[in-house]
Design goal:
By secondary structure, the chain is mainly β. It has two helices and 23 strands. This is 4-deoxy-L-threo-5-hexosulose-uronate ketol-isomerase.
Length: 281
């Protein structure tokens, strides 16, 4: 029996999105629950056909099953996969080869791998595998990336409340991918803004996954065009879809960590159309 399930989110134009009320905005862009015991949960977005998922094995291994929406014999027949562990120690088995992932370690799995199995070392502290998947045109090798192997960039300052460390984990300067890019940004204590000044990148979409949000705290995620912004209040371990035409920035009531995942035609991380803070509306 399949342990996977999914829902589909369709793309919308800026004109359509700016007419949405709070409930509709959350329905189209917010991903409220990614981790369910012994299941693999997915949201299939029509923005660059990016898939956002979560696998949390508790009582036994969880298989990466194919889905009806893929019309494929196996999940990675025409896709690549990025994995970052946001829970306890776990193992990802890829066509018989096992990779142990500690907290905040990443794994890239290339197109064409037929059998992917997720498991936890301790059911009382299960692994929480955060997953991103995008269409792929060729097969690149499976590669684990530890935090020590990531490309590290430190930006911002406490004075502007955006002192943060960017860990580029699955990017083309670290591992070969077709179009998928993933990384993790950690905010320093006292800082709350994750991306400021805000920007867009019309050549790729993005998904933000917020975690390490302290109990009783929240993150306000900002989206929309630079002159027509909207916001979504988010809780711990929730994700939000960002269209290519939208800014993607957030401010929390405490510091936190978030994982960014991107899909599109451009692998240049710095390909951004920046907006002055004073120009936001």
């Amino acid at each position: 029996m399949s342990t996977s399930h999914y829902e589909t989110r369709y793309a919308g134009s800026p004109e359509a999105v700016k007419t949405l009320d709070t409930a509709a905005l959350r329905k189209h862009f917010l991903i409220e629950k990614l981790f369910e015991a012994d299941r693999c949960s997915w949201v299939y977005s029509h923005y660059d056909r990016h898939m956002t998922g979560g696998a949390m094995p508790v009582n036994g291994p969880v298989n990466l099953d194919t889905l009806d929406v893929l019309k494929a014999g196996y999940f990675l027949e025409r896709r690549e996969l990025g994995i970052i562990n946001t829970g306890g120690t776990g193992t990802v088995e890829v066509d018989g080869e096992k990779f142990t992932l500690q907290y905040k370690e990443a794994l890239y799995v290339g197109q064409g791998k037929k059998k992917v199995l997720f498991s936890s070392a301790d059911k009382n502290a299960p692994a929480k595998f955060y997953l991103n998947s995008t269409p792929a045109h060729t097969a690149y090798p499976t590669k684990k990336v530890t935090r020590a192997e990531a490309e590290i960039v430190e930006l911002g300052s406490l004075e502007t409340a955006n002192h943060r460390v960017i860990n580029k984990l699955l990017v083309n300067s670290v591992v070969k991918t077709c179009q998928l890019q993933m990384g993790m940004t950690e905010l320093k204590a006292g800082s709350v803004w994750n991306t400021m000044p805000a920007h867009t990148h019309d050549r790729r979409m993005e998904v933000y996954f917020y975690f390490e949000v302290p109990e009783g705290q929240s993150v306000c995620h900002f989206m929309g065009q630079t002159d027509e912004t909207r916001h979504i209040w988010m809780q711990n371990e929730q994700a939000v879809i960002s269209p290519p035409w939208s800014i993607h920035a957030g401010a929390g009531t405490s510091n936190y960590t978030f994982i960014w995942g991107m899909a599109g035609e451009n692998l240049d991380y710095d390909d951004m159309d920046k907006c002055a803070i004073t120009a936001l509306r």
